[in-house]
Amino acid sequence: MIYLTTEELSMRIKYDTRYIREQLKDKIFKKGIHYIQPFGRRKILFIWDEIEKILDVPVQDDNPMDKIKLRRCA
């Protein structure tokens, strides 16, 4: 399991540290699942394995052009 500080997470996901703390923490990232606060202190350590699951977006195999019905030319 890989633990990251806010600064390290910021470099990996390309979001500002302030945005991570104010917008993502507790709205997207849940305490105990995506991050921990060891010893009840202010320091936050993010659990990279769990955050990676959120970021993993499945690739769509369907070609959107296949859904367009073309009129047959005589």
Task: Kindly describe this structure.
The chain has helices at residues 6-13, 17-24, 48-55, and strands at 3-4, 35-36, 45-47. Helices cover 32% and strands 9% of the residues. With 74 residues, the protein is of the alpha+beta class. It has 3 helices and 3 strands; from the N terminus they run E-H-H-E-E-H. The protein has one domain (3-55). It has a 3-stranded antiparallel sheet.
* Whole-number mean pLDDT: 83
- What sequence of helices (H) and strands (E) makes up the elements? EHHEEH
Domain count: 1
**Rough outline:** globular
Number of helical elements: 3
Secondary-structure content class: alpha+beta
Number of strands: 3
What ranges have pLDDT less than 50 throughout 5 or more consecutive residues? none
Rg (CA only): 20 Å
Order of strands, widest sheet: 1-3-2
Major sheet summary line? 3 strands, antiparallel
Q: Span from first to last CA?
A: 62 Å
| Fraction of residues in β-strands | 5-15%
Helix content: 25-40%
